[in-house]
Write a structure and sequence with these properties.
There is one protein chain. It contains three helices and 39 strands. By secondary structure, the protein is an all-beta fold. β33 and β34 form a beta hairpin. The protein is globular, with a radius of gyration of 28 Å. The protein starts with 10 loop residues before the first strand and ends with a helix.
């Protein structure tokens, strides 16, 4: 909490902070001539503890003084010792306490109004409205395990996704902004097999609609997400250190609507009734070590395939938490009507994790048939990677620095099937904080040999010979104790091909007007000159032969984010987020990808220039009118525009953005927190 009694809570684990965790607790603060004092009341219903007559709890207190950039703790923390929880103190002599009935519910009701404006349509404006309701339930099954359930969920207050123009062969991974899927899910995240955005995500057959359009057909509606009926999770840990997690969710059937030339409409199923399931066993061992078993299953009604992934994760540490051996192994299976696809993945790492010197080596492999993406996320399979790194850190002041370090890393990659060399790169970096509290970081990344890119051609067995390159980067951050902080992060990558390079800049000023109001602006321009990449796979001659077309292009991307927060008091705040993403691609020439990975001449000359815009506003007013109970007023604005042409510059494009179709929504959501224990007290 702050001296103004603004609360923050999170659940901390070996994976870091889970900020989605939201307990209901009370606090009061008072500013005195000597400083400030705080009093905290945490009900037993907000935490878990075992049934023991005499208990010992791990505990620590920390105070952060921003004006000194200083952190003070009750039990000392060694910055060169790995881990935070293992350095906590002890609260002893806790006797004869009993966990109350942990039954809490948060029913909600939400009212939505939406305006869609398109100046090119008649009528220009269309309106919509809806009222939805649902409830979240939390029940303590025992002193160790908790059931969380959401019924007919609503995620209207979730932040809009950061949409981008994706020219890569890989899927874009979006952050999870839905609270139910961020709170208390660290147990399910072990092994990296659970990507919660799959639940309620894009229908599996949404692209097949276009293959089923007949001549004269018109696609009326193709929903981007199915209706999520419910989601349930059970998690906890026994007195023997065994963590058990169970997650289950169900989404409904989804249909696209097609209208033929005679006006008759028909439905095309894009997503069947689908059940998602995750099961985890996580055993704590000595010295903060663990071993985990995790299984994910996706069951689809009808003829669509089912999927299953089973994995194991381990991390074994010595008594001083100075060395560790860790790794994982996974097997994926896809069950089709006539066959089953099976793939595997594994990794192993040996690391030194404490002291002034850090070091590690590791290897990981993913087979060409490994695919956990029905409920997980994976950029690409069919690869092997070996790496090694060493780093020296100095946590005490030296010369003109408070702290600093230096390190290097090497990466070697191969294709799994067939076994072929892919790439080699090495990274060097130096970082430090000056005694004036400026943060500095310099790095270089070098690829001294040709990279064989087996993924950019989007065709098995083909590759592109990526030229050698050198990348140089710099980060500078001014004193964060000041009202105004400036951050500059940039890198320049130069290729061995004449005129080919890339420049990325990230400029981020932050201004703290006072304790209530702050602004942060993030400006990220990126300039690619003579970039080379995949265009399409098309017919290249009159005999019907096909070939892979690559293009040489200049690409300019600008992303601007403005974040503003105003805190009225400890119960009331408003946040404003605006994001504009613009990407312009202009092709200089086209080439045919030859069998040896080089680029050959071609007569192909279709237009593939494009200009993409994504503009979002998320403005949220929140009033906590009672413990755990909130009123949200939310305004969202979104504009997406794609043109097969390019504007002259960013500002001319920005001026024309208002002429694109846009959607505005305004919603009111009321959430009320009910605690069984308060109800019992009232009745008595």
């Amino acid at each position: 909490m702050t001296p103004a009694n603004v609360q923050f809570d999170a659940k901390y684990s070996t994976f870091g902070e889970d900020e989605g965790w939201d307990a209901v607790w009370e606090s009061k603060t008072k500013i005195t001539p000597e400083g400030w004092v705080a009093e905290i009341k945490i009900p037993y219903a907000a935490i878990r503890f075992p049934k023991e007559d005499n208990q010992v709890w791990h505990l620590n207190f920390m105070r952060k003084l921003q004006r000194k950039q200083e952190r003070s703790t009750w039990n000392a923390l060694d910055p060169q010792l790995n881990g935070l929880l293992n350095q906590s103190g002890y609260l002893t002599n806790i006797k004869n306490i009993k966990s109350p009935v942990r039954l809490q519910a948060t029913p909600f009701v939400a009212v939505y109004g939406e305006l869609y404006h398109d100046r090119n349509n008649d009528p220009k404006n269309s309106y919509g409205r809806s009222i939805v309701g649902g409830m979240d339930v939390k029940y303590g099954i025992s002193d160790a395990f908790t059931l969380d359930m959401t019924l007919i969920p609503d995620f209207g207050q979730a932040q809009s996704d950061n949409q981008v123009l994706n020219l890569s062969p890989f899927e874009v991974q979006f952050d999870e902004n839905r609270q139910f899927f961020t709170e208390g899910t660290e147990l399910f995240s072990k092994g990296g097999l659970f990507y919660s955005r799959r639940i309620g995500g894009r229908p599996i057959n949404s692209n097949k609609v276009y293959e089923n359009l007949r001549e004269g057909d018109e696609l009326i509606e193709n929903p981007i997400a199915p209706q999520l009926y419910n989601a349930t999770k059970i998690s906890g840990r026994t007195s023997k250190g065994l963590g058990i997690g169970f997650f289950n969710a169900t989404s409904g059937e989804t249909f696209a609507t097609i209208r033929d030339s005679e006006g008759t409409e028909r439905k095309f199923q894009t997503d069947p009734l689908t059940n998602f399931n995750v099961f985890v066993l996580d055993q704590n061992l000595k010295n903060n070590s663990f071993v985990t078993l995790i299984n994910t299953t996706v069951l689809r009604n009808g003829s669509d395939y089912d999927a299953n992934v089973t994995g194991a994760v381990f991390d074994l540490k010595d008594k001083k938490n100075a060395y560790s051996v860790s790794g994982d192994v996974s097997v994926s299976q896809k069950y089709f009507t006539d066959n089953t696809d099976v793939g595997h993945s594994y990794s192993v790492r040996l690391r030194k994790t404490s002291g002034p010197w850090f070091a590690g080596v590791g290897f990981n492999e993913e087979s060409d048939t490994y695919d956990p993406r029905d409920l997980g996320f994976l950029n690409n399979n069919n690869g092997q990677n070996a790496f090694a790194y060493v780093e020296y850190n100095r946590a005490k002041p030296f010369w003109k620095f408070n702290r600093g370090g230096i390190g290097m890393e090497h990466n070697y990659e191969r294709l799994y099937e067939p076994s072929k060399f892919a790439s080699y790169g090495m990274n060097f970096y130096v970082y430090g904080q000056t005694k004036g509290f400026w943060d500095l970081n310099v790095f270089t990344y070098h690829e001294p040999s040709v990279t064989y890119d087996f993924f950019e051609p989007r065709t098995p067995g083909r590759y592109y010979r990526f030229p050698t390159s050198n990348n140089y980067g710099l980060f500078i951050g001014t004193d964060s104790r000041k009202k105004l902080r400036l951050s500059l992060n940039g890198n320049f990558r130069n290729f061995s091909e004449t005129g080919r390079h890339r420049l990325n800049i990230y400029f981020s000023p932050r201004y703290r007007v006072n304790d209530k109001l702050n602004f942060q602006l993030n400006v990220k321009p990126s300039f690619w000159t003579k970039d080379v990449g995949y265009v399409n796979n098309t017919t290249i001659d009159t005999t019907g032969n096909t070939g892979i077309i690559f293009g040489t292009r200049d690409r300019t991307t600008v992303e601007v984010n403005l974040n503003t927060n105003y805190t009225f008091n400890e119960k009331m705040a408003i946040s404003f987020r605006m994001r504009h993403y613009w990407s312009k691609v202009e092709y200089e020439r086209f080439n045919l990808l030859a069998s040896d990975g080089t680029l050959a001449t071609t007569d192909y000359s279709n237009n593939h220039d494009n200009d993409y815009d994504a503009f979002n506003i998320d403005m949220i007013y929140r009033w906590r009118f009672a413990p755990g109970s909130d009123v949200y007023i939310i305004w969202k604005n979104s504009i997406f525009d794609f043109e097969e042409s390019t504007q002259i510059n960013y500002f001319r494009n920005l001026n024309g953005l208002t002429r694109a179709p846009q959607s505005n929504s305004l919603s009111l959501k009321i959430i009320y927190f009910l605690d069984y224990n308060n109800f019992v007290k009232t009745k008595s």
